[in-house]
Specification:
The complex is a heterodimer of chains A (about 300) and B (about 280). Chain A is an alpha/beta fold. Chain A has 2 domains: about 150 residues, Thiamin diphosphate (ThDP)-binding fold, Pyr/PP domains (Rossmann fold, 3-Layer(aba) Sandwich), CATH 3.40.50; about 130 residues, Rossmann fold. Chain A contains 12 helices and 12 strands. Chain A has a 7-stranded mixed β-sheet with strand order 2-1-3-4-6-5-10, with helices on both faces. A 5-stranded mixed β-sheet of chain A has the order 7-9-8-11-12, with helices on both faces. In chain A, β8, α8 and β9 form a beta-alpha-beta unit. Chain B has about 280 residues and is an alpha/beta fold. The chains are: A alpha/beta (about 300), B alpha/beta (about 280). At the A-B interface, α3 and α5 of A face α6 and α7 of B.
């Protein structure tokens, strides 16, 4: 997914002279062709997220569309004030590409696990938050960001994720995608939790004949309120799923929306995500997802028990 | 630190224009009932010389692509910037009477919505990185305009300033000029006691800058310094350490940390503020 994302930025840069790439001490050889072919718009800086985000703001004020890339925790925690003031207050079209959203950097410990990036960025006016579920969607998403006039955070997942979206679908910021048609119940998902929810939904149908839908929200902010208004009313039970802490994250945004617009349906909604604690273990992403009960079996069991309760 | 320059900065007598610009600042201080008085008074001459003699910007077309850019990174000194911008006709002077009041466009820190203000600042350490982006953009577009940034001495405690300094040199930003308003007092007290910046000149030199040091209230020195900057054909960014006096022009406020920010003015204080400028 990361490779697709960066290659898509390079393609954008080839066709649009306003596109500029800024990396923060990325791995050797990243986008080497970009560097070779368009050296003036390929900038590799050091380990200095605050200055880089400010610099991107300066470039954006002068008409450029900077794509800034580094590890998600560094790009959201270290330079939060620069994101708030330089990008969001000025409402500039700077794109932040965060590598390793969620538990991707599992073996590297809590300094590298971006488990609250969605929550902290969601509080910022003018900010857009995108979390695609596979490489197909990522490619279409990057194309859509070029003309989007607001600061945008793109949350990258692990890479090599199972492809579940169609190849040349136009990505519309603020729109959700129906991955599996809802009937009895529904998973609302974002990022690569969509794959997990889809496999749980299939298991529910195969083993219990429960028609469970999956609606994927690659756009966490702005939220697809139209889809929420339509589908939340139609199903009996809903679980939101995210690889982020529950406080202030994707599920919270759904609850906030419902408390404003669908008060009578709030009782239907449960949330699955990470607890209010730092991750204190290593392993790989899947082993941590299992440890924190964000997997097919937990989603299956939780939905089953909710549906059975009636 | 150049002690001689500091003493001279204290002694320098303000001319009519410098007093006039300070009168406008006092107007907004009293109108708003508060403000960073000391921090504004130390940078009046830097702004005056830039806007009177060098910065190419049309108040009627403040967004013209070829304008010179100025970022007041020490946003708390904004009353001085409001003063010169109002004087140049970017907005009516009567707006100053409601500085920081509800419904005003002029706040306690400058915002981009005000005509002539390039960037909203206030949190320290943001202006220089943004200026680096602007200077880089100008180079990429082969534009001739200059990027000026004014930073405070307390402000350069921020790590982001030094990060941006590294990139200013890396990209040979010869179109970038920093002025340090070195009034030697930050919020808590004297910079020497809070965190000593010396040897400041050497620090900037070691970061690859063309460094100069002047009396920041001396109009001729400021003019010569900027002429030099425009003339010099060196492939590096430039910084001018301006030795200034916090609260300059007001004997009770000069070098007095209590006048860094002031509110709840007494009648006597208002009288004193006005009397000093007569």
């Amino acid at each position: 997914m990361r490779k697709t994302c960066l290659e898509s930025v390079y393609k954008l840069a080839k066709r649009n002279k306003r596109v500029i790439f800024i990396g923060s001490d990325l791995g050797p050889g990243v986008l080497s062709e970009f560097k070779k072919k368009i050296p003036k718009r390929f900038i590799m800086e050091g380990v200095s997220e605050q200055a880089i985000v400010g610099m991107a703001a300066g470039l954006a004020l002068e008409g450029y569309v900077p794509y800034v890339n580094t590890i998600a925790t560094f790009l959201t925690r270290r330079c939060f004030e620069q994101i708030v003031i330089d990008l969001c207050l000025h409402d500039l079209p700077v794109k932040l590409i965060g590598n390793g959203g969620g538990l991707v950097y599992a073996p590297l410990g809590p300094t590298h696990q971006a488990i609250e990036d969605i929550s902290i960025l969601r509080t910022l006016p003018n900010m857009t938050i995108l979390a695609p579920c596979d490489a197909n969607e990522m490619k279409n998403l990057v194309d859509a960001t070029l003309k989007w006039p607001h600061p945008t955070y793109i949350r990258l997942a692990r890479g090599g994720d199972q492809i579940i979206t169609k190849k040349n679908t136009k990505f519309i910021i603020g729109k959700s995608v129906i991955i599996k048609q809802p009937k009895d119940c529904l998973f609302l998902t974002t990022g690569t939790t969509t794959q997990i929810a889809l496999s749980a939904a299939k298991k529910l149908e195969d083993e219990k004949n429960i028609k469970c839908g999956v609606i994927h929200f690659p756009s966490i902010k702005p939220l697809d309120s139209k889809a929420l208004l339509k589908w939340i009313k139609k199903v009996k039970k809903i679980i939101t799923v995210e690889e982020n802490v529950l406080s202030g994250g994707f599920g919270s945004s759904i609850l906030e929306f419902c408390s404003e617009n669908l008060k009578d349906h709030l009782h239907k909604i449960s949330m699955i995500g990470l607890k209010d604690e730092f991750v204190d273990d290593y392993g790989d992403q899947n082993s941590l997802l299992n440890k924190y009960n964000i997997n097919q079996l937990t989603l299956y069991k939780k939905m089953l028990s909710l549906v059975k309760k009636k | 630190m150049n002690k001689l320059l500091n003493k001279k900065a204290l002694k320098i007598k303000l001319d009519h224009r410098s007093k006039y610009l300070r009168q406008i600042i006092v107007r907004s201080l009293i109108g708003g009932g508060r403000g960073h008085m000391g921090s504004a008074m130390s940078l009046v001459e830097i702004l005056r010389v830039l806007y009177d003699d060098f910065i190419k910007i049309n108040p009627k077309k403040p967004k013209n692509e070829n304008r010179d850019r100025l970022i007041l990174s020490k946003g708390h000194g904004c009353l001085a910037l409001y003063s010169i911008l109002a004087d140049k006709g970017f907005f009516p002077k009567k707006l100053l009477d409601r500085t920081s009041k509800i419904g005003s466009i002029l706040g306690g820190h400058p915002e981009q919505k005000v005509p002539g203000i390039e960037v909203s600042t206030g949190a320290l350490g943001h202006g220089l990185p943004i200026a680096v982006g602007m200077a880089l953009a100008a180079k990429l577009k082969k534009k001739k305009h200059k990027i000026y940034v004014i930073v405070g001495d307390g402000e350069i405690n921020e790590g982001s300033v030094w990060e941006a300094a590294l990139y200013s040199s890396k990209h040979n930003l010869s179109n970038l000029k920093i002025f340090i308003d070195y009034n030697k007092i930050q919020s808590y007290g004297f910079t020497k006691e809070v965190v000593d910046l010396e040897p400041l000149n050497d620090k900037w030199k070691s970061f690859g800058f063309d460094v100069s040091e002047i009396n920041g209230h001396n109009i001729e020195q400021l003019r010569r310094n900027i002429i030099q900057f425009n003339k010099k054909k060196i492939n590096k960014p430039s910084v001018t350490i301006c030795h200034t006096i916090k609260g300059k022009g007001f004997y009770f406020a000069e070098n007095n940390p209590n006048w860094h920010h002031k509110n709840n003015f007494t009648k006597k204080e208002i009288d004193d503020l006005n009397r000093c400028l007569q």
